[in-house]
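**User:**
My hope is that you can spare some time for a protein that puzzles me. This is the protein in question:
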Amino acid sequence: MSFAELQIEPEYRSLTTDVAKNFYIPVLKEAILYQRAVGFFASSVLAQISEGVECLAEHGGKIQLIASPHLQEQDVEAIEKGYQKRDKEAVQKVVRDALFRELNAPANDTEARHLDLLVNLIAYGCLDIKIAMVKSKSAMGMYHEKMGIMEDIEGNQIAFSGSMNESGNSLVNNYEAIDVFCGWKNDFDRKRASAKSDAFRRIWNNEEQQMEVLSFPDIKEEMIQKYRLTKRNPRKPKKVVTEDIGVTQFVSPPTPEPKIPETVHMRDYQNRAYENWANQNYCGIFDMATGTGKTYTALAAICKLYEKLGKDLVVIIVCPYQHLVEQWKTDIEAFGMKPIVCYSASEQKDWKKRLKHRVNWYQFGSTHHFCMVTTNATFSTEYVQDLLKRLKGNTLLVVDEAHNLGSENLQCALLPNMKYRLALSATIERHGDEEGTQALFAYFGEKCIEYTLEDAIRNEMLTPYYYYPIVVTLNEDELAVYTELTRKIGQMIAASPKKHGKVKLSEAAKSILIKRARLVAAASGKIEALREAIEDYRDKNHMLVYCGSASMKDNDYVEGKPSADEMRQIDVVTNLLGNQMGINVAQFTSRENAQKRKQLISSFDEGVSIQALIAIRCLDEGVNIPSVDKAFILASSTNPKEYVQRRGRVLRLYKGKQFAKIYDFITIPIALDDVSSYAEEDIATARSLVKRELARMIDFAKIAENPFEVDSLIYEIKNVYNIKEENLEDEWDE
C-alpha cells in the first residue's frame, strides 16, 4: 500500500485525536524513509509508535533524527569559547559529555524495552542520530525546529510541521498540533513537502551556515552497550516478502555481489587495461576495437573496483540505444549484478521508483551497492540527472560508445560528482569535432589502452579479411544534384564563423551535408553493381547486405523507424536478391524487436532458410551477427567512427569462419574514363567526395589480406582526379 491509499488529514491535534494511531503508525508502516528534526527527543515516543517503526525497519527503511542536546549554562559557555578558539574538538567534547549525562538507567521494564528497540535500530543501521546547534557571532542557540518527512516506495512524500516534539508526552499528555502536506495531492503540498525535504537534507549534511551538526559514533556505541537487552535485527522480516515494487510489503533489495564469473578468463591486454585504469585513479578510456571484449573488460574492472573499495560502489552504465541496454543487462547479470533498467520502454515499468529508492538507500547507508543501466537519452533527462546529482561517495560512471557524449547537447550530462569514470569506444576521437573530443578527455582522463583492429586481427581476436572495393559513379541527374549541393555547402562554409580556427557550421549547412551524404549512399548505380558482385554467391549463405542512406547522427533519426530513403533502398535490394535472383533473404532493420532479431539471427546462422540478411544500421547499432563472412556495404560512410565500427562487426570470430570478405561500394561523381572530358571546375567539385572515399579505401586496404590488389585502383583514382595530398580526409564531411 502507498501513502496515496491512506486516509491522511491536513492537520492533527493531540487532544482531539490519537496522533500515533491515526497518523504515525499507518504512515510509518508504509514508509521506507522517516526524517525527523526536533528540539527534544525521548525514547518514550517509541512506546507509542513502535508498531510503525518496526514495520519500517523490517522492509529496509531508514530513520534519520536531528535533535538538540540538553545543554547546561556552563556547556554553552564552553562551546562558545571553543568556537572563539576554533577548537572543534573542544566543542565536540562538551556536547559528548552532555549527551553522556542523558544516558540514565531505565526506570522500569517498559522503558528498558523502549531503549532496547532504540539501540537495536542504531546497531543495525536503521536509525541514525545527529545533534544540531545554532551558532551566531554573539552566542549559542538551541535548535528548536520541529518537522518531519516520510517517503514510501513509490516516491510519495509526506511532510509535517508544528509544535510536537518526538516524545511520549507530546503524543499523549501535551496539547500539540501538526500540519501535514501530502506531496501527491496538489502543487501547494508538493512544494511544501519538497521544501521541507530540501531543508532537512541541508541540515543533515551540515550545509547550513548558522548551524553545527555533529555525529558521535562513540555515543552510539555507549548506548548500545548500556541499553541493549537483545540482539534482534529489526531489519529481519517476520515473513517471506518480495522485493518487487508496488506490493504491500517489501524489503530493501538484496545486494548482489559483483563478481567475475569462473567461466570468464581475462586476456593480458584486458588485465593491462584495468591496471592502467587503476593507476589513473580509476578514470580513463578503454579504446578497443569492436569485438575485442570491451564490455567484459569493463565489467571485470567494475568487479575489481568493488572489491578494492570494500564492497561499496554505485555503478551507472550508459549506452546509446535501447537494444544495447538489453545486451548490457544480460552481461551485467552474468557478472553477479541485478541492474535497474532505465529507459522509456523498459520492462521494469517502475524503474523511476526503483532508481529513486536505490539512490535513497545508498545515501542513507541501507545498501552499499546498486547498478543501473540506461540510454543516453534517459541518462540526460532532468529526472535522472537530479537523482544522480544527489549521490556522494563511491560512484562509477561507465559510458559505452562514449564518443556520443562528446556532442554539444550531451556534454552537460557528464556529472561532476562521479568519482570514478570509464569511457568505452572503438573511436573515441569525434570526427570533425575537436572540442567534443577534448571535452571527453577532460572528463574521463587519458586512454588506458588502445587496442586496434590490426592488433585484434594479429592476436586472433578478430577474423582476417579480404577487401574488394567496387567503384560506382553517379548518373547525370545525381551528379547535377550533387554539384548544386556542393556549391551551396561551399558558400555556407565561406560565410560561417570560425572558432579556434575551425568553421562552425549552421544547422542549415549540416542539413545540406546530410542530404548530400544520403544522395551518395543511395546512388542508383549500386544496385546493378550489387547484382554483379553477388552473382557468384547465389548458392552461398552467411551474407549481409548493408543498406541505408541515413546515419544515426542525422537530425531526423528515430530509433526503430527507418527513413523513407532507407526503406526505398532496402526494398529495391530485397526485390533484386529475393525475387530476381532467387536468394533466400530477410530484412533486418531497427523495426524488429529483440525477440524477432534473435529468431532471424538463428535462422541466418543455420544458413538454410535465410542466406542473406538485408540490414539497415544494424552494424552501427551494435547488433552482433558473428556468422557473417561476406558483407556487401552499400551505405558507405566517410566518417571513420562509423566505418571502423561496421568493419569490426563483420570480423567477429565464429566457428568455421577462417576469413571474411568485404565488398565496399565506392562512389565517385564522374567515371574514371570520363574525367578528362570535364572542366576543371567540375572536377574540383567532385574531388572532395573522391578524397573522402579514397581515405576509407586506404584504411580498409592497409590491414586487409590483399592490400596490393587495392593499391593499383587507389593509384589510378588519385592519378585521374589529380589528387596529391597525403591527408585525404575532408574536415567538412559529416
Q: What stands out?
A: The chain has three domains: 3-227, 268-458, 465-473+524-720. The mean pLDDT is 82. DSSP finds 25 helices and 24 strands in the chain. Residues 3-227 form a domain with the Endonuclease; Chain A fold (CATH 3.30.870.10).
